[in-house]
Amino acid sequence: MNESRPLRHPAEKETNLADVAQQYDRVALVLQGGGALGAYQAGVYEALAHAQCEPNWISGVSIGAINSALIAGNPPEKRIERLKAFWNTVSGRTIWAYTPEGDLYRQLRNQTSAMVAILFGQPGFFTPRTPNPWLVPAGAPGATSFYDSAPLKATLEKLVDFDLLNNGRKRFSVGAVNVQTGNFVYFDNQKQRIGPEHIMASGALPPALPPIKIEGEYYWDGGIVSNTPLQYLLDQEEELSSLVFQVDLFSSRGGLPRSMPDVLSRHKEIMFSSRTRYVTDSFRRTFALKAKLLEALKRLPADQLTPDEAAFLKDYKHAGVANIVQIVYQHKTYEGEAADYEFSGTSMKEHWAQGYEDTMRTLRHPEWLTLPAAQAAVATHDFHYEDPT
Question: What pTM, to 2 d.p., does this model score?
């Protein structure tokens, strides 16, 4: 990657990205889970907002659900401010007054910060349970999680306008898992009213955080089944064309581990990566099969078509294409397997800045955002693997 090229604001380019985005029926921002790494997503959104490439559908899982709520639940002029308020709150604890430069010292500082999060929780997010759940009788309050997420509810109520989030002007959806059925579900503001509990359910990763009760059912973090809402988005209103910015906090690709910490880190990356290629390849195959069926049905006289075939012929000839721009956080060597619960202010600012810079580089390639040809079904672009400069 050519780091010598200076970063430029997208507004300085000849291409108007707002006009490019208007080619699509929907512009979606899809945010993966990843705990403390979620500040990277805030930086991505800040860059998109500055480029006036504003999504009209925001969907997330886990920390992605929280960031999504902070964006969809605030007017444009307050979104960055509220994202900063959240991340400054949960990363506001000062542990080190000063540490020397170098990866070794940074690794020690990160490890200490992660240990403090385990012992004391994070401000405005979660607090340790007392007594420890291992000492609590089964069925008693506090028996099924190590931390209490009540502080997160208060933070969401303070920073998110749920009336605005539910007014329908911006579509919003978050994923969670029903604890008893194991089914993945989406809470969608086009299908139900969203409250703090839906956001908390999407981020209730066991055994750290407790399941969240909604209308008599209990839900855990959606990331334990699928760490990205991409499939859900592609399955909705297939006739609409979509420009999707997918922001992943764990990369499916990585080096061969050389130590036990490497093994733990790589295991987590693989487990929580979005498998975007699998989703898009499946979507492309389905699109191709439907296209072949469409051509076959066109050869039949209209009076020989069944009602279902006639409906398919009518609906699918308007099927939309999808253009997916994937932006993936690249873990630093000193972060290790605790990166998703290491909430230091230093790391938060670093993640945010990296998200902003990666997105700015991505937006230097407006050809990536161009509406694909109808026969293309889905186009994918990956900032890191295509190495834009």
Answer: 0.88
